[in-house]
Known about the structure:
single chain; alpha/beta; Purple Acid Phosphatase, chain A, domain 2; 5'-nucleotidase,  domain 2; 2 domains; six-stranded mixed beta sheet; 14 helices; 26 strands
Amino acid sequence: MKKLYLLLATLLCLGMAYYGSGDSVRQPSGEVRHIYIITTNDIHANINAIPRLATVVGNYRSKGCTLLFDSGDRVVGNAFVDKAEPAGAPMIEIFKRLCYNAVGLGNHEFDKLRENLAALIEMSDFATVCANVAVREGVEFPEVVPYALFECEGVRIGVTGVVDTEYEGCRPAGKPVGFVDFRFRPDVATAAAWCDSLAERSDFTIVLSHMGYDTDRMFAAERPACDWIAGGHSHTIVADDVEGIHISQNGKNLGFVTVADISVGQGRITGVEYTQIDLSEVEIDGEYMDMVNEIKSRMPQLNEKVGEAAAAATHDGVANMMVDALLETTEYDVEGKTKTFTPELSFYHFGGVRLASLLPGDITLGDVENTDPFESTACIGTLSGREIRRMILDKYNAYADNGNPDKESHYLYFRSNLPYEVVLGTTPAELPDAVDVVFDLDDDKEYNVVLCNYITENYIDQEIVKRKITVTDSKVTDLLRDYVVRHTAEGGVKPDNTVRQSQRSGQD
């Protein structure tokens, strides 16, 4: 199987390699040439930033041999992309036009299930590189290679990729249903093995990592045979060096890109400089802006006004809007019937709030859909005060299988109309975990609650869910749209930008 992988990778790379000028190996004595490698990560379908990325790519290509890579999570986050057929297709169109050379896989590439991901890969004319994923026996899927090789200026660039396997059962973060047709190898061990292999056949080795910054640092500390970990997943903005290995990550939504400038003399690498570019400071490429506008024109309904904001909403304010929309809803779709239920408490997960802000003025259907691109549904039922405390603590104190804190833990992740205070531990053995949650609820009393399905599926004991919770067919974004329409009729949506939850040290 390993030989087959190598053969397939080699065949693919022959078609994908980007070559510099024909005399790249025969450069005059003493002349220094440059290879430019641009990396992106966690774009999350933010097509609005593409025209600025295009400017950066064009500028470097005008200077010399340039390679363009992505470290995963290209999709999920923008309704103009997510509601296409197949979901995510506009990002592939854009990547093909930008002439990406290779891309890794992020956990959100699997959100729309195997058939959708297969369609996106089949549309691509660039390499999809992920060394730690394989399909289960008997499942049809286009080829995903463990590595790719490229040559510029006589220098061989080796690229491998891995997606995180931090969750139970050695799988990426996300809904388990997205991974049922796949099996995953441990991320760090797999990356190390392929780095060792690539180091024997390349002059510069890159890992397109979707493991997250903490895991990237742990991986680099083991001194793998790689030069650059171009990371993603944790949405960190970082340019770091660990044990001589450069680690970069560009946050999310294409706010930044990282460029490696590799100096080459006589076909050998003589130096590498890394630059992180803030795309907000880059001019817009007009042709790519036309492309983005054309993509948006395919779904004119998303530009339709559904309401109006009387004031600006911060990220916390958008989260509170979603919490309040759940709380105000009293009718839900359950198996084709309308069920009446009046919640006392509502909970929503902050990581699912993908609209980072909202300006005063018109609220479009696209704005509403972009708040939650995961098609979350409402779940209704009862929980006791004790069970609610347990739910909050279990999420706050969550750890991945690799021993690191879950990337969406140890902060106020569950937003609610319920004010509560997380109490942190006081001893080194307890920190950074929380030991208690303080709120005005009776441990033994049952409360009517409405939550999104992500919380009920991941952070409540499933026996409790079976007995006490009903999963509805009501989409959270539909409930938010109704909320916006209702409040617009009352003078406009007035966001509450306060954080209703807090945390303190147990010593306070």
